[in-house]
Design brief:
Number of strands of chain A: 10
Largest sheet of chain A: 7 strands, mixed
CATH topology of the largest domain in chain A: Nucleoside Triphosphate Pyrophosphohydrolase
Radius of gyration of chain A: 19 Å
InterPro entries (chains A, B): NUDIX_hydrolase-like_dom_sf (IPR015797), NUDIX_hydrolase_dom (IPR000086), WH-like_DNA-bd_sf (IPR036388), WH_DNA-bd_sf (IPR036390), WHD_NrtR (IPR054105)
Strand content of chain A: 25-35%
Keywords (chains A, B): Hydrolase
Shape of chain A: elongated
Organism (chains A, B): Microbacterium pullorum
Protein name (chains A, B): NUDIX hydrolase
Oligomer: homodimer
Pfam family, one (chains A, B): WHD_NrtR
Order of helices and strands of chain A: EEEEHEEEHEHHEE
Number of helices of chain A: 4
Largest interface: A-B, 35 and 35 residues
Number of domains of chain A: 2
DNA sequence: CCAAAAGTGTTTTAATTACACCCATGC
DNA sequence: GCATGGGTGTAATTAAAACACTTTTGG
């Protein structure tokens, strides 16, 4: 016998990517939102998500719902928090929220979707439910985690210059970093492998690096241990 | 109209406390478990918990269920992770797991309860469901968090000596710490207020300290901001 | 040649570690 | 007195930060 419950379980995802600034230097953290087409909060923007399937693991549900609503496939996906306040929705919904990273080139997929738009994380409108609060927390986690793990990888292609890597850090942390010290820090962390390729075009060619896949990307929670 | 679902939401808590070692020096991390009296996993030990109430917030459910099953009231409570693998239980259950700290003197309350016993965190038997995995993750979080926050507070009375505080760190981290350097670190952190009281009894009396309540105990997640 | 980014070197500061040493109490 | 933990001082090591400087390309 299977009991039923009047508490529903949803899964949502805060998806971060980077967008090159129009001014040319630097990038901004952006995220895709979906316009709600029904009550509650019809017309407001909300995080992509959906209901948890009966035969579906939590992370699979996160990947599925964000693919269905935005067309995106994340390069990094990690559980953020379970939100379950009684008054966060007219009906009782517990949302298992994930956060994800997608590379800027992959982010194009979401532009083709209807009712999906990218927003600058620094200037969001009022969102549906408690989604403003959720995004704030995800941003805090992103900034925090970039300091002690290699998640910046999730926002870059396979090969990249140190300047491009530094740009990712600068966009997330919101401050400039000393190129000389940044170089030494990532070199000492022993997570980068220099290639024989160079990125040319601007001025002095910059060496391309790639991540050492022997090293774990980041702690993804209890399930990866 | 309210839809129903065949996914149920449970709340469980990993409760940590300290128990003085029989040898006299040092302490061990211990946690209370509840013996299951019904299937599945009847007879095995499991984390205290219960079903989420329809009109109950997640953290309230964690506090309620751990009080009902163990009689404990935690001095610190924080969400750990949401576990929802399809095969973690015969029926579909998503468990929102919390972790908590109780002071050793308060831990006595759980000894009076039937079907509750304290176990050394370092040597647990096989537990019901995926609870071994959950405890491992909670231990990792505890050890991690003690390094950058003041959660040790949650395992000590209002006033304590630096040696007692150091014992908490040593029990959690599982290694000895230099008393001299430990003293300087906590003094420089500016979270302790020296009192005029001294703990006498052994040899040279040790000054009692208390925590500065102006400083936040620790990040408790998105809801405390 | 010049501008600009790539990359190296050097100095200073701060934090961590290791460990010697003095102090105050119970016995 | 003396053993023991409380508490202070200090030198060595390591990491972070600030910044001058050299190198290499496109124009």
């Amino acid at each position: 016998m299977t009991r039923t419950s009047d508490i529903r379980v949803a899964v949502s995802t805060v998806i971060f990517s980077l967008r090159r600034l129009a001014s040319g230097d630097g990038a901004a953290v952006v995220l895709p939102l979906v316009k709600r087409t029904r009550d509650p909060f019809e017309g407001l923007w909300a995080l992509p998500g959906g209901w948890l399937g009966t035969d579906e693991n939590l992370d699979a549900a996160a990947a599925r719902t964000l693919a269905e609503t935005t067309g995106l496939a994340p390069s990094y996906l990690e559980q953020l928090y379970a939100f379950g306040a009684v008054d966060r929705s007219p009906s009782r919904v517990v949302s298992i929220v994930y956060w994800a990273l997608v590379r800027p080139d992959e982010a194009e997929a979401a532009h083709a979707q209807h009712n999906v738009a990218w927003f600058d994380a620094a200037s969001l409108p009022t969102l549906a439910f408690d989604h403003n609060q959720i995004v704030d927390y995800a941003l805090w986690r992103l900034r925090n985690k970039v300091g002690y793990s290699r998640i910046a990888h999730g926002l870059l292609p396979a090969e990249f210059t140190l300047a491009e890597l530094r740009e990712v850090y600068e966009a997330i942390l919101g401050k400039r970093l000393d190129p000389a010290n940044f170089r030494r820090q990532v070199e000492n962390s022993a997570t980068l492998i220099p290639t024989d390729q160079f990125r040319t075009g601007s001025h002095r060619p910059a060496r391309l690096y790639r991540y050492d896949h022997e090293v774990e990307l980041a702690d993804r929670g209890p399930l990866s241990r």
